[in-house]
Design a protein that fits this description.
The chain has 2 domains: 2-149; 166-374, MetI-like (MetI-like fold, Orthogonal Bundle), CATH 1.10.3720. Helix content is 78%, strand content 0%. The protein is built from 16 helices and no strands. The radius of gyration is 27 Å and the shape is flat. The two termini are 33 Å apart.
Length: 375
């Protein structure tokens, strides 16, 4: 029973591969370029399963490598047969791609059971497993959109988006500079800094805390599509109006989280600081701010995504002829959906890198916190 539970990915893949052989070939009868490698792919999946049984007592590293190689060999062979056969793939193709996906799932599961001692190996594994998952999102996206012949206007395949990115690097870089480096970054810094300073004042002055927090909760619910046109009228069509929108969006998460973080220190710790004759500023710097750092970094991470979203959406309401939001709204009107998806992919990568840098800084600053030690 334990053996079956461990190998269910590969056994299910082998069953799907055998089912695919009953529906061969991979392409329909009227396909322009009939694929002839269907039996080879099915044989590769079954062979991988048999080899896995032979290495039953081996460690998860070897088993994971076998599953990884089998899955990606089959995936490459299946995707290579799509050229000229879009919308002409048979049930055998989809059964085979599902089988290859199960092998990849099994490889990720095996890699997850590895417990290396070296720190570098832990880092590689921590990156490898999400990379496999992400790669198979793209593989399945490519296989399904081209295999079913999904209209390009509805959802272009990743290969077309990649070609568009490679051919539009200059345009994408100009949009990144306008939207991220100017509007989003400036608004992020202003919003987070002003929210942090206001939180310190609200913590010091009871009147501000009681009066400002309810208003802050109300203002945080303002819809961006209502604020953006007003900011454009106030600050013009350039990046300054988008930075103003981002400032409003990022101010209140920082305010609320910082106030909550400053309130986390217990009575015992504060009493201890008083016995040392510490004043407010000393207690703030040596006790309360360090304790509030997990809350502050939580706000910084939340705002890293809000800033990018706010800057892009604000550009829909008036901007110079550059910027990610401008490009998306313009190109979708021209039915250039691959360019729209190229901008989306660029924004996703930039946002992930920004979030990752903040998370890295958080682990460095809050190394003492249980959440950091657990990682």
């Amino acid at each position: 029973m334990r053996r079956l539970k461990r190998n269910w990915h590969s056994l299910s893949a082998a069953l799907l591969a055998l089912a695919a052989t009953a529906h061969m070939p991979l392409t329909l009868a009227d396909a322009a370029n009939p694929a002839s490698n269907g039996m080879l792919i099915a044989g590769g999946i079954v062979t991988t399963t048999l080899m896995l049984q032979a290495f039953e007592n081996s460690g998860p590293a070897l088993r994971g490598i076998l599953l990884f190689l089998g899955a990606h060999f089959c995936a490459f062979a299946l995707l290579s047969g799509l050229t000229g056969n879009e919308g002409k793939m048979s049930a055998a193709f989809f059964l085979a791609i599902a089988a290859a996906w199960l092998l990849a799932w099994g490889s990720a599961s095996e890699f997850a059971h590895i417990e290396p001692r070296a720190r570098a190996a832990k880092t590689v594994l921590r990156l490898l497993i999400p990379a496999i998952f992400g790669a198979w999102i793209l593989i399945l996206w490519e296989a399904l959109t081209r295999g079913f012949g999904v209209p390009f206007i509805l959802l272009p395949p990743p290969s077309a988006i990649g070609v568009r990115i490679a051919s539009s690097l200059a345009i994408l870089w100009a949009d990144v500079q306008q939207t991220i480096f100017k509007a989003a970054l400036a608004g992020y810094l202003l919003g987070c800094a002003s929210g942090f300073v206001t939180a310190i004042l609200a913590d010091r002055v009871d009147f501000l805390r009681r009066g400002l927090m309810p208003i802050g909760n109300l203002m945080s619910a303002l819809p961006i599509i209502g604020v953006a046109p007003v900011m454009v009228m106030w600050f013009g069509f350039d990046w300054q109006s988008k930075a103003a929108v981002v400032t409003i969006m990022t101010f209140f998460p920082m305010l609320v989280n910082t106030v909550a973080g400053l309130a986390t220190t217990g009575t015992m710790e504060r009493d201890l600081m008083r016995t040392y004759a510490s004043d407010y500023s000393q207690t703030l710097m040596k006790l309360r701010l360090p304790a509030a750092m997990p809350f502050i970094f939580n706000a910084l991470k939340i705002n890293s995504t809000l800033a990018l979203i706010g800057a892009i959406v604000a550009e829909f309401f008036g901007t110079p002829i550059v910027g990610m939001g401008f490009r998306m709204s313009t190109e979708i009107g021209r039915m250039n959906v691959d360019m729209v998806w190229a901008e989306i992919a660029t924004a996703a990568v930039a946002g992930s890198l920004f979030y990752g840098l903040i998370a890295l800084a958080e682990r460095t600053v809050t190394f003492w916190h249980p959440s950091s030690r657990a990682g």
